[in-house]
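agent> fetching stored inputs for the NAP docking request
agent> found them:
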Amino acid sequence: MSRIAILVPGKIHERVLDRLKDRFEIIAVPREGTLALDGEIAGRIRGVAVSGSFPGAWMDQLPHAEVIANFGVGYDGVDVKHAAEKGIVVTNTPDVLNDEVADTAIGLLLSTVRELPRAEAWLRAGNWKPGTAYPLSRFSLKGRHVGLYGLGRIGLEIAKRLEPFKVKISYHTRSRHADVSYDYHPTLRGLADAVDTLIAIVPKTPQTHKTIDADILAALGPDGILVNVGRGWTVDEEALSAALASGALGAAGLDVFYEEPTVPADLLEPTNAVLLPHVASASVPTRNAMADLVADNLIAWFEKGAALTPVPETPQKA
Ligand code: NAP
Ligand code: 8YV
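agent> prediction call returned; pasting tokens
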């Protein structure tokens, strides 16, 4: 019996392919503007494993696609509206990366507040000599009031990790959580007015576009800190680089950028920014767990008739 064909456009974690190759026929194609597939092959494809975008036009090339397994909890690259219209189930990789991303968020917060990467660079540059010391960091985490923009799976883990640091914690989401004691703010502006430190961990949606703008940064103020581990889409980077350069904002720690992998020169310039190349989930164990969940979703769909972690926008077929 011929094996079910799974399309893999562009690169994906090697473990996804290792897990799938004995059960499925893998059709690996380069990631280009259109899917380079002839009609016969396209007609055989029933599943997709993808890391990165998967536009609606590609779905239209696959008349028998049933499921698209996305590598990542954020699935903003996959046209889920189009998938839902076509009855295609989209899956993502929730929960298995919560701890890693939350740990990285705390590391990035501390690095930003205490200038740890700059202090290390100072040492490596040979500046530590008898009689010298790295300058005192301007900021401390002690006594800060941290606002979480997003309190979902990862946001909650960040909040739990913040508790032992004895900072006050508040949050903004669209819906209030009945089960947490943190102060709730129904608007982002209200949260930014209340706190001096903002951690963004919201998805890329039309509603979150450049919501962290000049007004929000001004509300955080000259002693304010911004950390973004969600999506670069959420931040107005021009306003951010201007605020960092002028001192209107104290410092920023960013794991994500608007147009990755491009980091605007104006953001590279200010020394009061800590910049990471989207590494929040990027450890071997966590990426392996994400790869397993991609594979397990496809296996569950084709062997048991139901995916493990479908996204809410796409229906799970009976
Ligand atoms: P989640 O459980 O769905 O949580 C999302 C949170 O954002 C919820 O609290 C949600 O609350 C809030 N939210 C959504 N839209 C909002 C809006 N318009 N205004 C205010 N709050 C809003 O997702 P998650 O698993 O925590 O992941 C969050 C995001 O982090 C992912 O979508 C991804 O983009 C990003 N991420 C980045 C990395 C990285 O490597 N840097 C790794 C993993 C995830 P309400 O629905 O009540 O508003
Ligand atoms: C990954 C992420 O870097 O899960 C997400 O939403 O942003 C990260 O864990 C990304 O998905 C890998 O391509």
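agent> quick read of the result: The domain at 98-275 is CATH 3.40.50.720 (Rossmann fold).
agent> awaiting further instructions
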